[in-house]
Amino acid sequence: MSLSNLSHVISHLNNVTKARLGLTSIPNTKLHLKLCLALQNDGFISTVVRGGPTPPAPHELLGHPSSQNIEPVTQANVATRRLWLGLKYWRSEPVLGKMKMISTPKRRVTAKLPDLRRVVQGHNTPYLEGLRSPGESLYISTDKGIMEARECVEKKSGGLVLCRIK
């Protein structure tokens, strides 16, 4: 898991939402895919499509089946594979708020279940601030995948704290 690449993706998403773009691409890795799918499940982004260096067709972004043949991933083209993200806006404001890295390559922050319960209830812990507003989210990498903090409390698992959305 490369947290330095994840920090680049998070700063890219912050810049894209400030620029009010509707479509952007990030490098295709397992960590990025899992985080983007978690963001999509929570309603922060609209679509996640795997593709190449050029944007996918509009019908693929809408989730309709493609009549074209999808280019298979090979050793020669694996470095050019991208994740294309469709961003959401409501009343001309981005749904995806300010993202911030919690764990860094030099300082990895893990949270056990009692700490996560306190954070979800709005209390501070030594390394984490409590979730105080309804739109705030905290994403954690667990052995069951990347989940939001409230979901981790429900499923009774802790893990590495990745990022926070305000």
TrEMBL record:
Keyword Nucleotidyltransferase found: no
Domain of life of the organism encoding this protein: Eukaryota
Name of the protein: Small ribosomal subunit protein uS8m
Homology family: Belongs to the universal ribosomal protein uS8 family.
Keywords: Mitochondrion, Ribonucleoprotein, Ribosomal protein
Gene Ontology CC annotations of this record: mitochondrion; ribonucleoprotein complex; ribosome
Primary location group: mitochondrion
A Gene Ontology BP annotation from the UniProt entry: translation
Biological role: Component of the mitochondrial ribosome (mitoribosome), a dedicated translation machinery responsible for the synthesis of mitochondrial genome-encoded proteins, including at least some of the essential transmembrane subunits of the mitochondrial respiratory chain. The mitoribosomes are attached to the mitochondrial inner membrane and translation products are cotranslationally integrated into the membrane.
Species assigned in the record: Aspergillus fijiensis CBS 313.89
Record GO terms (molecular function): structural constituent of ribosome
Compartments reported by the entry: Mitochondrion
